[in-house]
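All the exercises in this workshop are built on plain-text protein records. Instead of coordinates, the fold is spelled out as a row of discrete tokens. Once this layout is familiar, the rest of the handout is easier to follow. The record below serves as our worked example for the rest of this section.
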Amino acid sequence: MAEKKNEKTAAAAEVVKSQPLIKAEAKMVRISPRKVGRILKLIRGKKAAAGLTVLRFLPHSAARYIEKVLHSAIANAEHNNKLAKDNLVIAQAVANSGVLLKRWRAGGKGRAQRIKKYTAHIRIAVQEGSK
């Protein structure tokens, strides 16, 4: 019984690996990657339509950026690969750090203090599957 279960999960994993990932990316988004990563955790592994619904009702500013990237990934899948929107699953959702903008601010006693302005690269990949 256990062997059959392992064979089925291995076969399902092979099918998922063989399907292409359709990606969309937003670079140099002016928000911290940590803030974006918190929101990406909520949608990773869900159906694309469910992910859009979750993002639409979140109050975080990062949700607006992620929603745009997810819309783009869905549009890429529909247009380029002729996939149905209803069958898409969010396979990957990653926020990497982008360029760090370094700015200066006046400090006490005539000194300058550094301000770090973080940027993020948001990448979302969808694929056909069921969840």
Remarks:
- The mean pLDDT is 91.
- The chain is about 45% helix and 30% strand.
